[in-house]
Structure formats: structure tokens, C-alpha cells
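A reminder from the course coordinator: this example appears on the midterm review sheet, so study it carefully.

Given structure:
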């Protein structure tokens, strides 16, 4: 999804984030609660997210994450807007679904032992006005 409102993150959140070449951010599992809290305070709706694998010393991310067994896995989630839903309710659901996805994925049994690199979480968010333009 390409919606992403311009948000100026506090220096600690932006400074610790991985910054992709397209300007998108990736954060660790430990950082995501603070990111989600910040977006919530900015009244941003979280539309969903995905997991990234960033290899050691790489400036790029990969959406296919090595698995303990089988082919690489792709982890994504979407928070669907319910017709007529008040924006504040959508914001709350986006927060809870993002935190649940981060808690749920990946499990230690999903990944090989000591995978090279790190797993990061990328979020897609937007403001209410931008969202209304998307669904028109």
C-alpha cells in the first residue's frame, strides 16, 4: 500500500530505525510499541505492515524471510476499514492489530537458528483525510 502521511518522528525513533532507499522505516520488535504509540497520538490510522529481513551490512531489505523449514516466508497484515467506522475506532483497531502481529510473528520456531541479519517491522499509516481520498 502506498499511503503514508508525512510524519516527523522523535529523534530516538527515527535515529534507531532502518531507513530504506525509498524512505520507508523498519523498526525492531522492541521499538514497535513506541512507534505505534506515537502514530496513535498523531491520529494516524495503521493500515497494516510487513516484516523485513535486513542482511548484515546491507542497505536493502528483503520481504522473503528465511525459515527454519521450507521456503522463505512472507509476513504481512492489513487492518481493514469497516464501512461507516468512526476514524478513532479504526485508529484503535490498527494499533491493536499491529501490536498483535508484531507479538505473533515470527515465532522462534519459524526462523533458523541465528539467521544472518535482523528482522524488522515496517508499518503503513495515513491520516484520515488521506484515507478518505483513497476510498473515494
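Designed residues:
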Amino acid at each position: 500500500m502506498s499511503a503514508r502521511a508525512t510524519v516527523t518522528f522523535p529523534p530516538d525513533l527515527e535515529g534507531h530505525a532502518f531507513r530504506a532507499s525509498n524512505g520507508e522505516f523498519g523498526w525492531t520488535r522492541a521499538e514497535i510499541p513506541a512507534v505505534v504509540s506515537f502514530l496513535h497520538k498523531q491520529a494516524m490510522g495503521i493500515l497494516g505492515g510487513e516484516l523485513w529481513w535486513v542482511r548484515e551490512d546491507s542497505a536493502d531489505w528483503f520481504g522473503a524471510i528465511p525459515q527454519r523449514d521450507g521456503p522463505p516466508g512472507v509476513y504481512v497484515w492489513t487492518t481493514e476499514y469497516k464501512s461507516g467506522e468512526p476514524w478513532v475506532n479504526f485508529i484503535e483497531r490498527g494499533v491493536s492489530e499491529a501490536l498483535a502481529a508484531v507479538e505473533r510473528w515470527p515465532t522462534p520456531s519459524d526462523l533458523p537458528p541465528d539467521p544472518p541479519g535482523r528482522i524488522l517491522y515496517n508499518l503503513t499509516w495515513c491520516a484520515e483525510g488521506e484515507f478518505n481520498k483513497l476510498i473515494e
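The helical segments are 11-16, 32-41, 87-104, 128-135. The two ends are 16 Å apart (CA to CA).
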